[in-house]
Structure formats: structure tokens, C-alpha cells
């Protein structure tokens, strides 16, 4: 009785297979190539990429860390470091207590919050309704109105005509001057219109058969399907209203109605000094000016940093889906 010949290991058998019989992806990996045929980066290229990315991250993180550290440092440490603190020696919130003491900064913060909330809601409603009307082929005058929207996207009216228009309608020195001139954006309308046009027409036809009106189709069918793109467009409007300062600079003469960004420009960019009268009656000792300025800067940036992570997941769905069809 003859002994059975032992079978070789599967790995040894695979190594004996001719090269032309092996999968192409395996041969490319062995030769240092990607599956699309390009040469895979070597160790030096990967190291250079890592160094560049690390440098970019540090360029963003270090100034932001300095803003936070300066705003929470004690007065002695800020003065000792010359106004630029990279790492605090402790936590001192006197700058934030002074900013929120009820003075000009607190009032400007309330103005910015009110303008942002009201402006974002009105802009979303107006943009969604206008985009829905422009997306319906049978709507009255949708082509001329669309041409006007595209024309406004390419050409701006200019500063003097805008100021004269706001003056003639009686919006000077009014909060509405911060909202109505930029109520709708042509770019956002085009994105919303493209998204609405991508909704299957069968849904509209079935709603028509059930007796739904245009308003019912818009509110009960279109808006629930457009939460992602509305979240993105709403964030665009909110960031625009929150960061706007030029409209307040030319339309508002009453400093009590200035938003936070204009106050920040006045005391940070123009380098004016904050006094105890500006901060409120409850402030006895004035913190260092760099600490106050960095606290104001962080307060202006914090709301956007807080809202953005909750809406980030909608960016890809909202923007790419709304930009597929023009």
C-alpha cells in the first residue's frame, strides 16, 4: 500500500501560478501601482504630505489656541506676555464677565442674534417659495423672472444705488436695513430650484390627482423632501447675516443698533479702547484690552462653530443633489 502524497500549502500553490494568471490588482500592488494605473506614492512623498498637512493644521490651530488662551488668562499673565498668550497659567473669566455685563457688547450680541434668526427664517421662506415657482414649467412668467435672477447673479447694483434705494423706502437707521436688502440670494435660489426640479414628477401628478393645490404640494410634499438642502441654505443665510457688518456701517447711524460684528470691527480692527462705560455699570476693574478683544472675537465665532457640526451631514446631500441639474 502506497502512502498518499501530501498536498502542498495553498500559499505555495498560489506562488507557483504564472504571473499572467494572477489578478491584475495583485500584480499592481506588488509593483507599487494603484488600480487606476498610477504610480503609488513612495515613503518620501507620504512623509512630505504628512508634514504639509501638519503645518496647515498648526497654522489654523495655533492662532485659535492663542485667542482662547488670551481670553481666559489673568491680567498679570497677559501683560507679562505682551498681549499674546499661547498657553494660560490659569483660568480667569473676568474678560467674559465684563463683556456680558450688559454694556455695548451684550446689546450688540442681542442685535446680531435677532437679525440672524429673523433674517434666516424670512430668507428661507422667500427663497424656497421663489425657487419652487421657478421650478414649475407652467408657472406664470417663470422664464423672465429666472433671467432676472441670473442677471442679478452676474451684476451687482453697486453701493450708491443700494444706499439710495434703502433711503427712499425709509429703512435707514432701522433693523430692516440689515435684512431686506439681502433677503434672497440668486445662488441659493438656483440651488433650491435645481433640487426641486430633481423631485420625480410622478409625485406631483399623484398629488394633483388627489386634489392637492400648489400650496399643499409645496408645504406637504416638497418641503419635507427638502430638509437637507434647506438646512444647508439656512446655514448659508445664517452665516451671512451673522458676519455682515458693512450694511450696518452704511445704513445705521445709531450705535445702539450696531450688531456684534461692527462692534468687533470698531474695537478690534480700528483698535479703539473699551472703557468701563462701554462694558456696563457692573464692571469695576477693566481687564486688559487684548483679553477683552479675544473674548469678543471668540463670542463672535462660537455660534457658527457650534451649529456647523449639526448641519455638516447635510452638506453633501443638499449641495450635490441640488447642483446636479441646472
From TrEMBL:
Region named Disordered: 1-40
Domain ABC transmembrane type-1: 109-307
Primary site of residence: membrane
Compartments, record wording: Cell membrane
Keywords noted in UniProt: Cell membrane, Membrane, Transmembrane, Transmembrane helix, Transport
Gene3D superfamilies found in the cross-reference section: MetI-like
Membrane topology: Multi-pass membrane protein
Signal peptide: none
Keyword match Nucleus: no
Pfam families: BPD_transp_1
Segments crossing the lipid bilayer: 47-72, 108-132, 144-163, 175-196, 228-252, 291-311
PANTHER family: ABC TRANSPORTER PERMEASE PROTEIN MG189-RELATED-RELATED (PTHR43744), POLYGALACTURONAN_RHAMNOGALACTURONAN TRANSPORT SYSTEM PERMEASE PROTEIN YTCP (PTHR43744:SF9)
Similarity remark: Belongs to the binding-protein-dependent transport system permease family.
Protein name in UniProt: Carbohydrate ABC transporter permease
Protein species of origin: Luteococcus peritonei
Amino acid at each position: 500500500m502506497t502512502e498518499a502524497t501530501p498536498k502542498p500549502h495553498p500559499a505555495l500553490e498560489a506562488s507557483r501560478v504564472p504571473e499572467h494568471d494572477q489578478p491584475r490588482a495583485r500584480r499592481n500592488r506588488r509593483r507599487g501601482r494603484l488600480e487606476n494605473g498610477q504610480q503609488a506614492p513612495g515613503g518620501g512623498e507620504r512623509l512630505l504630505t504628512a508634514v504639509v498637512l501638519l503645518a496647515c493644521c498648526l497654522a489654523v490651530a495655533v492662532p485659535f489656541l492663542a485667542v482662547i488662551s488670551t481670553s481666559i488668562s489673568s491680567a498679570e499673565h497677559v501683560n507679562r506676555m505682551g498681549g499674546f498668550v499661547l498657553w494660560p497659567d490659569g483660568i480667569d473669566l473676568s474678560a467674559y464677565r465684563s463683556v456680558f455685563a450688559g454694556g455695548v457688547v451684550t446689546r450688540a450680541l442681542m442685535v446680531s442674534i435677532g437679525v440672524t434668526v429673523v433674517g434666516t427664517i424670512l430668507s428661507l421662506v422667500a427663497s424656497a417659495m421663489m425657487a419652487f415657482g421657478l421650478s414649475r414649467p407652467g408657472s406664470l412668467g417663470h422664464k423672465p423672472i429666472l433671467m432676472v435672477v441670473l442677471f442679478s447673479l452676474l451684476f451687482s447694483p453697486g453701493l450708491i444705488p443700494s444706499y439710495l434705494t434703502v433711503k427712499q423706502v425709509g429703512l435707514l437707521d432701522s433693523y430692516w436695513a440689515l435684512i431686506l436688502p439681502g433677503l434672497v440670494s440668486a445662488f441659493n435660489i438656483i440651488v433650491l430650484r435645481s433640487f426641486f426640479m430633481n423631485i420625480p414628477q410622478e409625485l406631483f401628478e399623484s398629488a394633483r390627482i388627489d386634489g392637492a393645490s400648489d400650496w399643499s404640494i409645496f408645504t406637504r410634499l416638497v418641503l419635507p423632501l427638502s430638509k437637507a438642502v434647506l438646512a444647508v441654505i439656512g446655514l448659508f443665510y445664517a452665516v451671512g447675516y451673522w458676519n455682515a457688518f458693512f450694511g450696518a456701517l452704511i445704513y445705521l447711524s445709531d450705535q445702539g443698533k450696531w450688531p456684534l460684528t461692527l462692534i468687533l470691527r470698531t474695537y478690534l480692527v480700528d483698535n479703539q479702547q473699551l472703557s468701563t462705560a462701554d462694558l456696563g455699570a457692573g464692571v469695576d476693574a477693566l481687564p486688559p484690552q487684548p483679553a477683552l478683544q479675544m473674548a469678543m472675537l471668540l463670542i463672535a465665532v462660537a455660534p457658527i462653530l457650534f451649529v456647523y457640526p449639526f448641519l455638516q451631514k447635510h452638506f453633501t446631500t443638499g449641495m450635490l443633489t441640488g447642483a446636479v441639474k441646472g
